[in-house]
Amino acid sequence: MTDAPLVRRHTDRAIEVLTLDSPHNRNALSAALIAELSAALDSADTDPRVRAVLITHTGGTFCAGADLKADGVGSGPKLLVELIRQIAELSKPVVARLNGHARAGGLGLLAACDIAVAGSAATFAFTEVRLGLAASVASIPVLAGTDPRAAARYLLTGEAFDTAEAVRIGLVTAWDESLDGILAGLRASSPQGLAATKEITTAALRQALAAEGDRLALRSRELFESAQAAEGVRAALERRNPPWAI
């Protein structure tokens, strides 16, 4: 008997649909989930029948960020950098569709996608700062595509915000009722045209990854291994405020 997949796949008229299906940990970015998602992206990229990829989710959370319970710190920051790089360098557009919560590193995954749509149940928060951490790796795609003043506010405060605000600041492209039109447009576009256009639209993100990816992955690990972050994570797991919260 094999374990159930963490990423489910099916093809819908040239769109490869990848569903994050790990509700027990709120679709956290465990090493296992990242490996399955990366393999699915590779498969879609080499399949001539696939025009674009759609990443969605089961349950009430799109992605909760790192899975510290399962993996600890480990190689998580580096794995997230590589996943973001893979999405940016994929020859096919990647669309995210969420109608649930996105937190911490899950926002890095969301921001790495070429297009993102969200429903009214979605909420967003960069919770790292409240734990003694920073959204080091996630900040790379976020700052490449989001209003920098708004990004600074939410990265620094950890405030939660809704879909209307996510659309306003550019973290999300549109409300989810736009998804059918977006997918129709991708289906109507040529594979060569999509690949060439994506090279243009992802240039800033690819440059930022080359310049900052390794450094910020290392910085993320350093922060995770600090005493202050250990206390912040422990407080979160125990559902209490850390000592610096006033």
UniProtKB/TrEMBL annotation:
Pfam families: ECH_1
Gene3D superfamilies: 2-enoyl-CoA Hydratase, Chain A, domain 1, Lyase 2-enoyl-coa Hydratase, Chain A, domain 2
Top-rank taxon, per record: Bacteria
GO molecular-function term, one example from the UniProt record: catalytic activity
CDD domains: crotonase-like (cd06558)
InterPro entries, sorted: ClpP/crotonase-like_dom_sf (IPR029045), Enoyl-CoA_hydra/iso (IPR001753), Enoyl-CoA_hydra_C (IPR014748), Enoyl-CoA_Hydratase/Isomerase (IPR051683)
Similarity-based family: Belongs to the enoyl-CoA hydratase/isomerase family.
Protein's UniProt name: Enoyl-CoA hydratase
Upper classification of the organism: Bacteria, Bacillati, Actinomycetota, Actinomycetes, Kitasatosporales
